[in-house]
Amino acid sequence: MELCAGQYRYLLCIYRMEHERKRIRCVDIANDLGVTRPSVSKMMKCMVRMELVEPDYCEAVRLTPAGREIAEHFNQDYDITYAFFRRILKLSPAESKENAFLFLSTFPTNTVKKLGTVTSRSLEHVKKSHPVEKK
Fold first, then answer.
1. Nearest 5°: phi and psi at 26?
2. CA–CA separation, 28 vs 22, rounded Å?
3. What is the pTM assigned to this prediction?
4. Residues of the chain whose pLDDT is less than 50?
5. Where are the domains of the chain?
């Protein structure tokens, strides 16, 4: 299933909030993403049609099993992609977040996996080149 950058943002936001809260409201998503509540409502309707979010999102936003599975996979890819932009390219947190979403929604999965391999190797090399001093 192909998602646009906005859908990735919402899916990851909901997925991560599920681990922090018992109940997720549309206003919580709006506050976290810095968008309006009508924008959240519109996206929730779209995500219900895509069967990523349970239809009763007005009461509480919950991912469907399919939505959760995609979010879990996406969360791993996002962490690696974010690390590339933040730790290797040295972009700001906001720029890294934005570029990670854009990258994940633009490039095919095999490209994301290759970036993950390069990022992991680069970060390992940095650790070996600059070991942490013991006190």
1. -60, -35
2. 12
3. 0.76
4. 134-135
5. 5-64, 68-129
pLDDT given for residue 135 in this prediction: 44
Under CATH, what is the fold of the domain 5-64?
A: Arc Repressor Mutant, subunit A (1.10.10)
d(CA 119, CA 82): 10
Amino acid, res. 71: A
Q: Crossing angle, helix 109-129 and helix 93-106, to 10 degrees? A: 140
Cβ atoms < 10 Å from Cβ of 68: 16
Contacts of range 48-51, beta carbons closer than 8 Å, 24 or more positions apart: 50/1, 50/7
SS3 per-residue string spanning 2-50: CCCHHHHHHHHHHHHHHCCCCCCCHHHHHHHHCCCHHHHHHHHHHHHHC
